[in-house]
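Reviewer 2 asked us to include a model.

Predict the structure of this chain.
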Amino acid sequence: MHSISIALERLGDFMQQDIPATPGLRHFDVSFPLNDAFDPLAWLGAQIAYPQFYWQQRNGDEELAALGAAEHFSTLSAARQFLNNRHACAETRICGLNAFTPEQSHLFLPRLLWQRTGGMASLRLNLSSNVSLQDDARRALEFLQQLQTIRPITTLSSQIVRETHLPARPEWLSLVSQATDAIAHGEFEKVVLARATDLHFDQRVNAIALMAASRRINHNCYHYCMIFDAQNAFMGSSPERLWRRRGTLLRTEALAGTVASHADDAQSHRLGEWLLNDDKNQRENMLVVEDICERLQHHTQALEVLPAQVVRLRKVQHLRRCIWTELNLADDEQCLHLLQPTAAVAGLPRDSARAFIQRNEPFEREWYAGSAGYLSPEQSEFCVTLRCARVSHTAVRLYAGAGIISGSVPEEEWQEIENKAAGLRTLLLMD
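Predicted model (structure tokens):
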């Protein structure tokens, strides 16, 4: 018998206990032995309950799979208020997405949460009610009884029938020139412009299968997947941390500056060395560092900026500088609004760059360049939602962006977004 079946059985037994008919928040945990081939992503993919959320930390040490919602939150502020008002225990986790416009979120307290830290895993069932935990326990038991048995993840098999870009290449080149003109006139120092690529297929695209394929091949990335319902999902594999909080200790980073990667290690190393010494890319990265430090300085203790390093991914390489500090107050809502969107995904100054984006990009960013992860009273971690796709039945929208500063060359920026989008595009176009 699978370990998930045993854990679910035990949780079902807990629901038979005498649970009080009072309001409140309560959880039940079952330890989860990592002694079989259980894949939480495959388990989610077998279910017909929503929402579903999968998230894996980029070093692989932490992983979670959330199924069903005991509570929904449309803002991170509402989620944080819920944790405070319900006097939630330190490890109560709320997970999901924040949009590019951080005032909008899709966060939820999972009905079921599988989580792994290192070699330890557990399955948690959450009860929450403003009226009666006993009534919610009955709903939870019905939820458990409707779960499906785990099955292997299917392979991607759809064939593309049409592909379009927003903006198309001529309009993109013109938009980059427009941005560099605005920079020359002092409107802003940097703006990050994005492109949406719409791929239409001959049959439904399985978002779980796309997530599994990306997880298998796109290393050194956060992997995240939100399944809203049977037709709609948002997923990706991002190299960039927005923040990690442990108590009041905070880690964030500036990930900006890009060059192509290469399958040959020696050639990839040469490209990485060029990136470390290229003035344009170093300036782009330092603009992000300075902006983050300026935003954090009145809310933290001393800020430590680590030396630049090259992050090598499958299709591209990036410059990264990590920033470590301690918060004056462990406040995730404050972290979100201070850090998102960073200059790495919007520009600098933030307000004027966002205004340019709003006026000129021919699509809404929605969840692109927002964040995905979890928060709890004890800790939180969110990645920036890059290298991502919105899946809607037979259509997939890919997103990619490039930082435009003084000296940016439109043709080179087009090639950069081509390289970035290739991380998922190549998976969808494999025979």
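The chain is about 30% helix and 35% strand. The radius of gyration is 22 Å. We have added this to the supplementary material.
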